[in-house]
Amino acid sequence: MEKKNIKKIDLAMEVSKGTGLSVNDSSEIVELFFNILSDGIAEDKEVKIMGLGTFVVKHKEERIGRNPKTGEIAKIEPRNVISFRPAKGLRDTLK
Length: 95
Description:
By secondary structure, the chain is an alpha+beta fold. It has helices spanning 8-19, 23-44, 88-93, and strands spanning 46-49, 53-60, 63-66, 73-76, 79-86.
């Protein structure tokens, strides 16, 4: 299976093809979508997109880790991470 990376411009070109808008207008729409998503995650700690899934901010507590190369023990600071839970419809497409 070939790994495929999708860039914002690729999304903009697909939006352009599907809507008939110019690539510049489509690019602005894609950029606006990502800004709305980022702002929503920052403010609400959860963004649900029906049919796609839910982006959630989870807090990871401080813990002790180990450098796999050297075996050295190190403290991992507490942090927030973004997690994605796919919607049922999206999960079903993988079966």
